Amino acid sequence: MASELDNLPVITTRREEAQGFLQGLVSKGLGWARKYSLFQYPFVTACCGMEFMTVASARYDLDRFGAALPRFSPRQADLLIVVGTVNCKQAPILRRVYEQIAEPKWVVAFGVCASSGGFYDNYATVQGIDRIVPVDVYIPGCPPRPEQVLDGIMLLQQKIQGQQHKLIDRKPLPVVGQEPISR
Ligand code: SF4
To answer: Which cofactors are reported in the record for this sequence?
Structure first.
């Protein structure tokens, strides 16, 4: 005689399927919302800053990507844009700023100096900020044209939309200063 317990695996599977379906919808919705509400923290160190200001001007209209408003506190930002050359003395400061941004967060390397050290191939310059923080999008150029920056922002939006987003993320809290560089 069949008991109630015989049905449990099927019920569990259906519940898991439903949860997976709902999680997929939530993830898609959160991804859509997050990719259009990027609050950038510009970490500007060098000449690329002039081009960064151009991108922020009305002509290129960053607002249509939901990324117009810079935040000057990492606690209010979710997108760290590193603009320009980073030297070894600045490296711990950059890492500290990254750690102060709440999850979920993303990083863009703006220009060849931030991406790879550029032509400053010397002992004092960090040869790419991915040695200090994980980078989501690299924008080439010295300095990059505003169109390249917009292209980079759109690439980042695609990446955000494709990521898994949860309403509540139960990851253990990191110990400040001891997190690994990769995510
Ligand atoms: S990439 Fe070129 S413009 Fe940008 S900070 Fe380096 S040297 Fe300056």
So the answer is: [4Fe-4S] cluster
| Prediction pTM value | 0.82
Residue 96 Cα to ligand 1 midpoint, Å, equals 23
For 38-162, the fitting CATH number among 3.30.1520.10, 3.20.20.100, 3.30.450.40, 3.40.50.12280 is 3.40.50.12280
pLDDT of residue 171: 66
88 is in an annotated binding site: no
Burial of 5 (0-12, 13-18, 19+ CB in 10 A): exposed
Q: Is pLDDT of 182 > 60? A: no
- Measuring from atom 8 of ligand 1, which residue has the nearest CA? 47
Looking at residue 138, its pLDDT comes to: 97
Residue with tokens 């993320």: 169
